[in-house]
Design goal:
Largest sheet: 5 strands, parallel
Number of strands: 5
Order of helices and strands: EHEHEHEHHEH
Radius of gyration: 16 Å
Helix content: 40-55%
Structural class: alpha/beta
Shape: globular
Strand order of the largest sheet: 2-3-1-4-5
CATH superfamily: P-loop containing nucleotide triphosphate hydrolases
Distance between the termini: 17 Å
CATH class: Alpha Beta
Number of domains: 1
Length: 166
């Protein structure tokens, strides 16, 4: 049986982590990891060295999960707003060996703003700056070689059902 590899991207606040956690619960023999786990630092430094490190960390984790016989479904999510980021993570992985589903979660601006404001109010996110940053990335997803799933006004269950039908 061919393993499923779910690569799920989307801007901050679009619902990636929530959707992936639910997808993991619904798929047998599954594992989920978030690219943010490979770059959870204080201070958060963005430079060429840290970018290369996190891509390398993600790449190795992905390969290890794919090589583990326990998992039939590997679910990975991260912002993934540029095609070269996706390509660098998947480099040297024989994608013909897996049923690869590259997905970008998107939503309308009103939904995104409401979700992020709620996160800031509830101390899930630290700053209102996240709204500007997330809105700036939102249009970039239309340029990617991914399946787009609009999460606007949909429940997590509805989104997971759409992903499982792919």
């Amino acid at each position: 049986m061919m393993k499923n590899l779910y690569i799920i991207g989307g801007t901050m606040g679009v619902g990636k982590t929530t959707v992936c956690r639910k997808l993991k619960q619904e798929l047998d023999n599954s594992v989920f990891f978030d690219g943010d786990w490979c770059w959870d630092s204080n201070p958060w430094v963005i430079n060429e060295e840290t970018r290369a490190m996190v891509i390398d960390n993600i790449h190795h984790l992905l390969i290890n999960f794919l090589n583990c016989s326990v998992y039939e479904n590997v679910i990975f999510c991260w912002v993934l707003h540029k095609q070269e980021i996706i390509d660098s993570i998947l480099k040297d992985i024989d994608l013909k060996k897996y049923n690869v589903k590259q997905i970008s979660l998107v939503c309308n601006e009103a939904n995104l703003i409401a979700r992020l404001r709620s996160d800031v109010i509830n101390d899930v996110r630290e700053s209102n700056d996240i709204i500007y940053s997330s809105l700036k990335k939102l249009p970039l997803y239309s340029n990617l070689n991914t399946i787009k799933i609009d999460t606007s006004n949909k429940s997590v269950d509805q989104i997971v059902r759409e992903i499982k039908k792919l």
